[in-house]
Amino acid sequence: MTLSDVAREAGVSLATASRAINGSANRTVRADLRDRVLAAAAQLRYTPDANAQAMARGRTTSLGLVVHDIADPYFSSIAAGVARAADRAGLQVTLASTQHDPSRESGLVDLLKRQRARAIVIAGGRLDDEATNDELRAALADYRSVGGSVALIGQPILGVDSIVVDNAQGAGDLAKALHGRGYRRFAILAGPADHLTACERRDAFRGALAELGSPVPDDAVITSTFTHEGGEDAMRALLRRGELPELVFAVNDVMALGALAAGREAGIRVPQDVALAGFDDISTLRDVVPALTTVRIPLVDVGIAATELALADASDEPRLTHVPTQVVLRDSTPGL
Predict the structure, then answer these.
(1) I need a surface site. Which of 63, 145, 159, 325 has the fewest CB within 10 A?
(2) Number of folded domains in the chain?
(3) Same structural domain, 212 and 290
(4) DSSP state of 216
(5) Same structural domain for residues 117 and 89?
(6) Which domain holds residue 45?
(7) Residues 172 and 278 grouped into a single domain
(8) pLDDT tens for the 336 residues of the chain, in order
(9) Is 182 in the same domain as 120?
(10) How far apart are the C-alpha atoms of 133 and 143, rounded to whole Å?
(11) Cβ–Cβ < 8 Å for 89, 62
(12) Which residue intervals define the domain HTH lacI-type in the entry (predicted)?
């Protein structure tokens, strides 16, 4: 059966039948006509075409999610929350990955716009790179100009609704808690020097320790990529310095796990030879020995909140939802 058959059975025009079944971005159908069309469709067992509905409404039932690396447990946990909230809203998630290349984000936003995604959630740290950020701002503005809505998870610098994790508070609280356990000599596996979230965590951790009288020397702050391999590389660089600190802080858990692997490879025991802490509380930590001290972000809840924010009614000004963090002390930092 075709839509023409439904229109003929209901005694209406093809355009009216299309608007009644597929919806319309700017036209409505009288209730009595809609009822006639729907009754005819049911009688004829007509199944509407999803692409036709998307064209008529101007939007599909998809929600775009852009992440840096779906294999990273940080992003997979956020994706689980996005999928849960999208399902409740009757939407399906279209997943896109930048493979840790932020310059790809604007192109992915444009692709989702052409696919008529109803909304987009972007999860991933911002870089201190105005050219890349400006390109993404322009792509988001273009998408929003045709009715799309956006929520960002991360640094609120793009002028859109954002979920903002309290990185500075969490890193400062972690430094104070570890200092309270007796640690005085620290090193930091700091991530990339232009990664705004990594820098925020690094600076807050160093600042809190400086206030407590235990400053972290510059040569004990090792930059590397924001990945497991980056944690391995940074830990090896730290070990080449010779004298170990009492505690190593990696600015995310994935780097901390890389550091743990590199230390094990070099015969360094955690926590007997050096204590270790991370940030994020990713789901895979439950399988790590020793259990890793970290700062907990409710990642699934962050994904849910971002989706709900993206689907909320439009606002004249960007809305910011702040997410608190929680220090979780475990076996990797037993204290001195």
Answers:
(1) 145
(2) 3
(3) yes
(4) P
(5) yes
(6) 3-57
(7) yes
(8) 788 888 899 998 887 888 888 766 556 788 888 899 999 999 998 877 655 555 445 567 899 999 998 889 999 999 999 999 999 999 999 999 998 888 899 999 999 988 889 999 999 888 899 999 999 999 999 998 888 899 999 999 999 999 999 999 999 999 999 999 999 999 999 999 999 999 999 999 999 999 999 999 999 999 999 999 999 999 999 999 888 999 999 999 999 999 999 999 999 999 999 999 999 999 999 889 999 999 999 999 999 999 999 999 888 889 999 999 999 999 999 998
(9) no
(10) 15
(11) no
(12) 1-57
Please measure the distance between the N-terminal and C-terminal CA atoms of the chain and give it in whole angstroms. 76
For residue 51, the model assigns a pLDDT of: 52
> 290 and 304: one domain?
no
Is residue 18 classed as helix, strand or coil in its secondary structure? Answer: helix
Q: How many CA atoms lie within 13 A of 319 on its CB side?
A: 15
The CATH number of residue 89's host domain is 3.40.50.2300
Please write down the long-range contacts of 138-144, taking CB distance under 8 Å and 24 or more positions apart.
Answer: 138/106, 139/105, 139/106, 139/107, 139/109, 139/110, 139/113, 140/109, 142/110, 142/113, 143/109, 143/110, 143/112, 143/113
pTM of the model: 0.81
In our burial notation (b when 16+ CB lie closer than 10 A, e otherwise), range 262-283 reads bbeeeebebbeebbbbbbbbbe
Neighbours of 134 (CB within 10 A): 12
Question: Considering the domain boundaries, does residue 331 fall inside one?
Answer: no
Residue 216 lies in a domain: yes
CB atoms within 10 A of CB 210: 12
Question: What is the token pair recorded at 274?
Answer: 């050096």
Say yes or no: 156 and 304 in one domain: yes
Q: 7, 20 in Cβ contact below 8 A? A: no
- For residue 37, tell me if it sits in a domain: yes
Token pair listed for 119: 């909304």
* DSSP-derived pairing of the beta strands 275-277 and 294-296: unpaired
CB of 204 closer than 8 Å to CB of 212? no
Q: Would you state the structure tokens that stand for residue 31, as one six-digit string? A: 């209730």
Write down the residue that tokens 């993404």 correspond to. Answer: 136
Cβ neighbours of residue 266 under 8 Å, at least 6 residues apart?
236, 239
* 241 residue type, one letter: R
